[in-house]
Design a protein that fits this description.
Length: about 325
C-alpha cells in the first residue's frame, strides 16, 4: 500500500524524501522525512533522531541509514526523521528548545493546543506514530554529558507488549538494557507504549560525539533492529555485538539543588552507594558549597559534565543490574 504522511507519498518499492511544515503556534518549522516503502509487506517502523539538540550521532546515523536502505530489499515501511525537533537541533544545541525552554522528551505525546514544544511533540505523534508497529528513538550524550551506551525500555503491565519491548531492546546489541517500571511520563518511548506501540530509546556516544566509528556502531544496531523486525535480511557487513545484553533497572536520578558551578567527585561508570557524596555545587559569588549525594546505590550511567547548573538540572542517573 502507498505510504502517505502529509503531502509526502511513497508507492511500494519507492523511496521519497522531503519536508513537512509543523505549526508551533509562534513559528512554523520544517521537519525532514525519508519514507522507504518496501517492495514486500511488513511492519511500519518509525525511527527518529534529533529529538534533542547537541546529540549528533542519531542525526548522522538516520541520515546515513536513509541512503543505505533500498526499497527493493525492504519488507514493510520505514519512516525516518533525522531531525525531529528542529528548534532544539538548530537553535538550542541542548535538550531544551530555545522557543520555550522545554525538554520535549518530558512532554510526549504533547498537546496540539499547547506551547511550541508541546505542539512539536503532538505533531510528531500525529504524523509519524499513527499506524506504527515499532518505534526507535535515537539519543546520545549531548555536548555536556558523559554517558555509557544503553538501551531504554518500559515495563507496562501488558505481557505481550512487554515481551515485544524487551526483545526489541535486546536486538540492539548493547550490553546495558535498562528498563523503567511503568509506562508513565513524557518520554517518547513511554508515550508510544501507552498507545500500544513497542518502542525503545537508544543512547549512543557522549559529549556531542560525531566520530564515524560511533555512528557506525549505531548504524550496526539499527540494522540489527530492522532485521529483528523482519524488515531487512541480515547483512554480513554488520559487526556482531561485543557483549551479550544484560537487563538493568533504574534506581534514581540526582538533580541539582541549587544554582552554581558543578564539580563531580563520582563520574560515569563509577559504583556509588546511597548517601555517598558524588559532587559539590559552588556558589560563584560567595563560595557557598552544596554537597550532592547519591539518591540510591548502583552504577552511574550518565553524569553532567557541564560546569554551570541550576535547580532541577540532571546531574546523574543511577542503575543496577537486574539479575
Amino acid at each position: 500500500m502507498t505510504l502517505t504522511i502529509g503531502t509526502l507519498r511513497a508507492e511500494p518499492g519507492r523511496k521519497t524524501r522531503g519536508v513537512l511544515p509543523a505549526d508551533l503556534g509562534t513559528t512554523t518549522v520544517e521537519v525532514p522525512l525519508i519514507l522507504v516503502n518496501g517492495a514486500r509487506p511488513g511492519p511500519r517502523v518509525v525511527i527518529t533522531g534529533g529529538v534533542h539538540g547537541g546529540e549528533f550521532i542519531g542525526v548522522d546515523a538516520t541520515t546515513r541509514l536513509a541512503g543505505l536502505l533500498e526499497p527493493q530489499e525492504v519488507a514493510g515501511q520505514v519512516v525516518i526523521c533525522p531531525v525531529a525537533n528542529p528548534p532544539a537541533v538548530y537553535g538550542g544545541r541542548l535538550n531544551i528548545s530555545p522557543l520555550d525552554g522545554v525538554n520535549i522528551n518530558r512532554v510526549f505525546p504533547g498537546d496540539p493546543d499547547g506551547g511550541p514544544t508541546d505542539r512539536m511533540a503532538a505533531w510528531l505523534f500525529a504524523h509519524l506514530l499513527d499506524g506504527a508497529d515499532a518505534y526507535v528513538d535515537l539519543h546520545s550524550g549531548g555536548i555536556d554529558q558523559h554517558l555509557l551506551d544503553f538501551v531504554g525500555y518500559r515495563r507496562t503491565g501488558d505481557s505481550e507488549l512487554d515481551a515485544q519491548n524487551k526483545a526489541l531492546a535486546h536486538a540492539v546489541g548493547y550490553e546495558r538494557v535498562i528498563f523503567g517500571t511503568s509506562p508513565e511520563g513524557g518520554n517518547s518511548h513511554a508515550a508510544a507504549n501507552r498507545r500500544g506501540i513497542p518502542a525503545v530509546l537508544v543512547e549512543t556516544g557522549q559529549l556531542g560525539d560525531r566520530h564515524p566509528d560511533t555512528v557506525g556502531r549505531l548504524l550496526d544496531a539499527l540494522h540489527r533492529i530492522l532485521h529483528h523486525l523482519g524488515v531487512i535480511e541480515a547483512s554480513p557487513h554488520v559487526k556482531p555485538p561485543t557483549a551479550r545484553p544484560r537487563d538493568w533497572m533504574w534506581t534514581g536520578e540526582v538533580e541539582s539543588p541549587a544554582t552554581g558551578l558543578w564539580y563531580p567527585d563520582a563520574v560515569t561508570g563509577d559504583d556509588v552507594t546511597e548517601g555517598q557524596t558524588i559532587g559539590r555545587i559552588i556558589d560563584p559569588v560567595d563560595g557557598t558549597e552544596h554537597k550532592v549525594t547519591a539518591v540510591s546505590s548502583g552504577t552511574i550511567i550518565y553524569h553532567m559534565n557541564g560546569l554551570t547548573v541550576r535547580p532541577g538540572t540532571h546531574l546523574a542517573a543511577i542503575a543496577i543490574p537486574h539479575d
